[in-house]
Structures are given as C-alpha cells and as structure tokens.
Amino acid sequence: MRIATWNVNSVNARLETVLRWFEEAKPDVACLQELKCMDEKFPAEPFERLGYNLAVHGQKTYNGVAILSKAPLEDVRRGLPFLPEHGDETDEQARYVEAVISGPRPVRVASIYLPNGNPIGTEKFAYKLRWMERLNAHARTLMAYEEPLVLAGDYNVIPEPRDAEYPNNWSDDALFQTESREAFRALKWLGLSDAYLEADGAPGAYTFWDYQAGAWQRNNGIRIDHALLSPQAADLLLGVSIHRDVRTWDKPSDHVPLVVELDA
C-alpha cells in the first residue's frame, strides 16, 4: 500500500499538475492538504475516473484536506475533537480528516494540515500550539486501538536543524520555534515514529521550497511534510520516497509529495 501526502496549494488551480502526478505515481491512498475549496467545489469526477473514493473536508478559500483511496473508506471523521479547556468549540478551520482504508489489513489514515502559526507572539501562534495539543489528545486515543495508523500531512514544523538547508533563516519563524518542535516530539513520545527517519533519515530530504527569493534554485528547502506511524504501521514499513521532481513541473505546488510504502 503506497500512501502519499501532498500539500497541493489549491487543488483546482493546479488540477492538471495534480492529476498528472496521480496518473504517473498511482498511489493507493493520497492525503491532500490546502485544497482551498468547499466540498462541493472539489473536482471529484476526474479522481473518481481514476478509481478513487473520496473523503473531503473543505473550506472556502483557505485550508481543506482530503483522503483519496482506491479501496473503500470507512469510519470517516472530519475535524479533531475539541478540548473544553481550550474554548475552541467555534473552530471551523478544515484541517483534519481521518478514515480507515478497508482491505485484508485495514490501515487508519489521517490527512493533516497543521496551522502555520506566524507571526510568533500572536493568536495565530497560540492557535497552532492549541491545535497540536488537540492532535496529541486524539492521537493518544487512536494509539490505544493498537492498529496500523498513519498520521500524514503538512505539519508546518521543522523538527531539527538538519531538516532545513539554512536553519538560521528560520530562527524567527513559527515552524522552527522550540514550542512547535517540542509539540511535534510529544507526538512521537506517544509511540509514533517518523516514517522518513525510519526508512532513510539522510539530511537534505526537503518537501517544501518557497516561491520567493529563488528558494528552489538555491535549494533553500525544509522538511515539513511528515508521516507518523504507529508501531503496528512501522512494522509494515517498506520504504519512503520524496517526489522532488514534481517541483519542476508547470504550475507546481511549493510542496512535493511524500510517499510511504507499507506491506499492507
């Protein structure tokens, strides 16, 4: 089972590019982020023609996540549970969708678009940290199921200095703050493992290059798209690949696909 995660940065604006990649890579499951459209505006038909079932959690203009799967989707959940102490009951940002991929060996998969959090010191950064606490609480619940689990998406977190070509450039960015990195490590402390580090771990494996200041040409990249695996999923891990070449295509996203292969 090949499970991909990709922040497409507007699925309708880049539909031709996204479909080209689906036709070439043929993922069994794909977690998409930053759809930038409501559910009814998601271009379902071309993906359904390719044989995919869809679970979409969209939002007008911003955010939006989806899971596309060649196998049926079950137990679909849209949005994270709320934590009463946070007072986020009115949070309507579409950043999380989860489903069980049915089959001989079912796998629970989530598509995650974690808040950016910039600028530091504002409500946006506080919201990022609260959202990560909610993700941690829900992941703790999912881990208790003791089943193959893949939490994949754009985490907007640079875990370590080696995950950036120029780490000093990110010292004042929410993606590289101590609080953000500690919250990411807290997820791993639940027993989740970083699929890329388990399969390879070589530095320089970036998944994002900004459109500005020649970031792609200078390889000013960062690794912020991650797939975290439960022990049951990690036991099935065969490999991980980053489809860096997609960044050179016409109308590319500023992210590239990360693909995890499981023996499932």
Number of domains: 1
Q: Helix/strand-derived class?
A: alpha+beta
Going across the major beta sheet, what is the strand order? Answer: 3-4-2-1-14-13
Percentage beta strand:
25-35%
Spans where pLDDT lies below 50 across 5 or more residues: none
Largest sheet: 6 strands, mixed
- CATH top-level class: Alpha Beta
Shape summary? globular
The helix count comes to 6
Q: How far apart lie the N and C ends?
A: 5 Å
Return Rg in Å.
17 Å
- Whole-number average pLDDT? 97
CATH architecture: 4-Layer Sandwich
**So, the CATH homologous superfamily?**
Endonuclease/exonuclease/phosphatase
- CATH fold-level topology: Deoxyribonuclease I, Chain A
- Proportion of helical residues: 10-25%
Q: Total strand count, please? A: 14
Order of helices and strands: EHEHEEEEEHEHEHEEEHEE
List the helices and strands and how they pair.
Blueprint (H helix, E strand, L loop, with lengths): L1 E6 L7 H11 L3 E5 L10 H6 L3 E5 L7 E5 L3 E6 L17 E6 L5 E7 L9 H21 L5 E6 L23 H12 L3 E2 H5 L8 E2 L11 E2 L2 E5 L1 H4 L2 E6 L15 E5 L2
Parallel strand pairs: 1-2, 7-8
Antiparallel strand pairs: 1-14, 2-4, 3-4, 5-6, 6-7, 8-12, 9-12, 10-11, 13-14
Describe this structure in words.
It is built from six helices and 14 strands. The chain has one domain: Endonuclease/exonuclease/phosphatase (Deoxyribonuclease I, Chain A, 4-Layer Sandwich). With 264 residues, it is of the alpha+beta class. The strands form three sheets. The chain has a six-stranded mixed sheet. The N and C termini lie close together (5 Å).
